[in-house]
Specification:
The complex is a heterodimer. Chain A is mainly α. In chain A, helix 2 packs antiparallel against helix 14 and helix 8 crosses helix 10. Chain A is built from 15 helices and no strands. In chain B, the strands form two sheets. In chain B, strands 7-8-9-3-10-11-13-12 form an eight-stranded mixed beta sheet, sandwiched between helices. The longest helix of chain B has 18 residues. In chain B, 33% of the residues lie in helices and 22% in strands. By secondary structure, chain B is of the alpha/beta class. The chains are: A mainly alpha, B alpha/beta. Chains A and B meet through helix 11 and helix 12 of A and helix 2 and helix 4 of B. Chain B: Keywords: ATP-binding, Cell membrane, Membrane, Nucleotide-binding, Transport. Chain B: It is found in: Cell inner membrane. Chain B: Its main location: membrane. Chain B: It is a peripheral membrane protein.
């Protein structure tokens, strides 16, 4: 198991290297530079522009800038925002819990309903339920997130008035952030001072539901389809027949003998969805004005805030990689044939 | 009364309108402690019969029979829950490919103990003790250390021993071995066969042995049913059936054993294949391939007739003097 982990870790180095090259290159391909964007429409004295670029170290040749960037990274220095002058790490730390909370809620929604729908569809193969689930999940998978988000807002928030339109919490509440997770913070606040903060938890929950559904829709569809096909495959295996020949109950055959094996490919897919989730968070957070990483990065790109874009994406990518790595380890736990491979 | 009594069993697959009969009018009875061999080509309905009996065809095949009785219980009318109390406990089955018959995600110990937990309610130390005992009974060396092994860490022969241990865990009255040695190499085949026969004797189980291997059947079985295209062609006692086969198909099977063609340039074969869904002849199912075919055979399907302690499905059974 340990050598398995080390082998997987070794593969990470080239991945990180590739990410730094990509973010460094791509953000510089966008026309305009941070100074021009800050100045805006006003005419800019070429000398002042050059001075400003020199101060920011952006007048050096690209390779030198890249070497500086990597050098700083290796020293654990993620730099500071060109605009706010706060360190990238601090900004990230403040905003990340919001994204994490949203992503976890979306993932919980997707995993619970995706597995359930996939398993039932596989057992009831060819039934109306099966066709229904597969049809809906194909629709869900092909739906543009921003459109889906707007439709839900228009229906549930505007027409029915069930959920708030945007943000994480009603402005009427003043909650001290302790964990950064609004659900936990409001719950703690309500417990500490029930009179002042009555209803805060419910309000936070209502704010979370719609974005979580929007963000979770694509992973839900992918997980449901993957679970179904994987279940169908495993149901045909000889060992499932053996399990039934042992006189086990259908529930035991399905959940102990089939699902356990069917989950192996589903786990990988769930892991890969973390990447989709981060991409989706950018759109979802923008639609719902959710103050998280996605919105932060979008703003940074439009300001050409090079350090924020480069290192923000690097941090996000690292998280995705770590998640996939954890999934790989889980994969080993779930599949003894991999765990024991030499 | 016999332990297992099957009368006029048919199993159909496919749509109601356009069904495929995998098994047609099958009769079979097995007494306690008896070894019955079922032989026949691939696709003759051997396995399907047994799977139908055990209720493993759920939702796929339609099962019709006059009688389907095991140990006094009518398997046609009992609920699925009742059936599950019998299957795996009183009737157990061993499958063809041991490498795929075990769940790769669980240790072999877990898979053996699972049966004991479900059917006998064993727990804790007694459970582990019994699992070890079973593994020793099927002659798995270093059983204690193998308890925590995963199926992929075992060889084919070892896996089959585990499958057998699982099957005999609750002292079944009837053990069905569906080509238990086909996927194993020759030396292991003999070991597994010996093991099965020894267990049959020591546990006094009835044993149904589905196989292609006539030699094995000749050695161990008390009775043989020869199946062709979903029907029993002939059922008779051993060794009579080997000395004086009455059905042309049985005769052809015996002739095709390589040892019988010693010195010949070519092995003896029965030309043609088992008829499929759409090319079943209207007369005797063997008529297109039968070397002794007559006009009546092409026109009319023969029923089973009693002959010399067994049954045969042929208009013109081979008599002793012809053979």
């Amino acid at each position: 198991m340990l050598s398995f982990i080390f082998r997987r870790l070794g593969l990470l180095i080239p991945t990180f290297f590739g990410i730094t090259l990509l973010t460094f290159g791509l953000i510089r391909m966008i026309p305009g530079d941070p100074v021009e964007v800050m100045v805006g429409e006003r005419t800019l004295d070429p000398q002042m522009h050059a001075d400003a670029m020199h101060r920011l170290g952006l007048d050096k040749p690209l390779y030198a800038q890249y070497v500086d960037y990597i050098g700083n990274l290796l020293h654990g220095n993620l730099g500071e925002s060109l605009v706010t002058k706060t360190s990238v790490w601090t900004e990230f730390k403040t905003l990340f819990p919001a994204t994490l909370e949203l992503a976890l809620a979306a993932m919980a929604f997707a995993v619970v309903f995706g597995l359930l729908a996939g398993v039932i569809a596989a057992i009831k193969r060819g039934s109306i339920f099966d066709h229904g689930v597969m049809g809906i999940s194909l629709t869900g998978f092909s739906m543009p997130i921003f459109w889906w988000g707007l439709i839900l807002i228009m229906f549930f928030s505007v027409k029915l008035g069930w959920t708030p339109v945007s943000g994480r919490l009603d402005l009427a509440f003043d909650i001290t952030p302790r964990t950064g997770f609004m659900l936990i913070d409001t719950w703690l606040a309500e417990a500490a001072d029930p009179s002042a903060n009555a209803g805060a938890f419910k309000d936070a929950l209502m704010h979370l539901i719609l974005p979580a559904i929007v963000l979770g829709t694509i992973p839900l569809a992918v997980i449901a389809r993957m679970t179904r096909s994987s279940m169908l495959e495993v149901l045909r295996e000889d060992y499932v027949r053996t399990a039934r020949a042992k006189g086990l109950s259908p529930a035991r055959v399905i959940f102990v003998h089939t699902l356990r094996n069917a989950l192996i490919p589903v786990l990988t897919v769930i892991g890969l969805q973390v990447g989709t989730l981060m991409g989706g968070a950018v759109l979802t957070e923008t639609i719902f004005s959710w103050p998280g990483i996605g919105k932060w990065l979008i703003d940074a790109i439009s300001r050409r805030d090079y350090p924020v874009v480069q290192n923000g994406i690097l941090i996000v990518a690292t998280l995705v990689i770590i998640t996939n790595f954890l999934v790989d380890i889980l994969y080993g736990v779930a599949n003894p044939r991999i765990r024991h491979a030499k | 009364m016999s332990l297992l009594e099957i009368k006029n069993l048919s199993v159909e697959f496919g749509s109601e309108k356009n069904p495929f009969r995998a098994v047609e009018g099958l009769d079979l009875s097995v007494n306690q402690g008896e070894i019955v061999g079922i032989v026949g080509e691939s696709g003759s309905g051997k396995s399907v019969t047994m799977m139908a009996m055990m209720g493993l065809l759920e939702g796929q095949g339609r099962i019709v029979a006059d009688t389907l009785q095991f140990d006094g219980k009518n398997l046609l009318t009992i609920s699925a829950r009742e059936r599950r109390k019998i299957v795996g406990k009183d009737i157990a089955m061993i499958f063809q490919d041991p490498m795929t018959s075990l769940n790769p995600s669980y240790t072999v110990g877990y898979q053996i103990m699972e049966v004991l937990k479900i059917h006998q309610g064993l727990r804790g130390a007694a459970l582990k003790q019994r699992a070890l005992e079973l593994m020793e009974m099927v002659e798995i060396p270093a059983a204690a250390s193998r308890l925590n092994a995963y199926p992929h860490q075992l060889s084919g022969g070892m896996s089959q021993r585990v499958v057998i241990a699982m099957a005999i865990a609750c002292n079944p009255k009837l053990l069905i071995a569906d080509e238990p040695t086909t996927a194993l190499d020759v030396t292991i085949q003999a070991q597994i066969m010996d093991l099965l026969v020894n267990l049959q004797k020591s546990q006094n189980m009835a044993l149904i042995m589905i196989t292609h291997d006539l030699a094995v059947v000749a050695e161990v079985a008390h009775k043989v049913a020869v199946m062709y295209a979903g029907q029993v062609a002939e059922m008779a006692k051993v060794p009579g059936i080997f000395r004086t086969p009455t059905h042309p198909y049985t005769e052809a099977l015996l002739k095709s054993i390589p040892e019988h063609s010693k010195g010949a340039h070519r092995l003896s074969t029965l030309p043609g294949i088992v008829p499929g869904q759409y090319d079943r002849p209207s007369g005797c199912l063997l008529s297109p391939r039968c070397p002794y075919v007559q006009d009546k055979c092409k026109a009319q399907r023969p029923g089973l007739t009693a002959i010399d302690g067994g049954v045969v499905r042929c208009h013109y059974p081979i008599t002793a003097k012809e053979a």
